[in-house]
Amino acid sequence: MQDCLFCRIVRGEIPAAKVYEDDEVLAFKDIQPQRPVHVLVIPKKHVTSLAHATPEDIPVFGKMLVLANQIAADQGSPDGFRSIINTGRVGGQEVMHVHMHIVGGQEPVGPMLKR
Ligand code: AMP
Ligand code: ZN
Asked: What CA–CA distance (Å, rounded) separates 39 from 16?
C-alpha cells in the first residue's frame, strides 16, 4: 500500500520511535500518547482493519497478542495494560492499517469506555 501511513513507517520512509521489530510485526510509540505508555503494534503486512482480516492473518495477529505483555513491560507498564483495536467508522479508526494500541503506565488506565 503505497500511501498508507503505517506501511510507510514499515518501509522506513517516515520516522517512528520503534520499540520492537521482527519479520512480521513492528511496534512503535504513538505520536500523541494518551498515557505514559502508549505503543502501537502493527502487522508489517498491510491489513486495512479487523473488518478486512482473513484466516491467513491469524498467525501474525496471534503474535501481536502474545508480544503485548513483553512490550508493555519493557516500556514501563509491568503490572498490566489495555490493548485496543479500533475498527472502522463505529470504532473510530483513523489510520487504515490494523494497529493494536497498548496503553498503560504505573497508574490504572481507568474505565473502559466513557459513560
Ligand atoms: P486509531 O484512531 O485507532 O486509528 O489510532 C491512530 C493512532 O495513530 C493515533 O493514536 C495517533 O496518535 C497515531 N499516529 C498517527 N500518526 C502517527 C505516526 N506518524 N507515528 C505514530 N503514531 C501515529
Ligand atoms: Zn498499510
From this structure: 11
pTM of the model: 0.97
Pick 5-104's CATH classification: 1.10.1200.120, 3.40.1400.10, 3.30.428.10, 3.30.160.20: 3.30.428.10
Render pLDDT for 64-73 as a digit per residue (tens, 0 to 9): 999 999 999 9
Q: Kindly report, residue by residue over 6-27, the tens digit of the pLDDT.
A: 999 999 999 999 999 999 999 9
Q: Is the separation of the CB atoms in 56 and 74 below 8 Å?
A: no
Cβ atoms of 49 and 88 within 8 Å: the answer is yes
Identify the residues whose C-beta falls under 6 Å from ligand 1.
5, 14, 16, 28, 30-32, 40, 86, 92-95
Atom of ligand 1 nearest to the CA of 32: 12
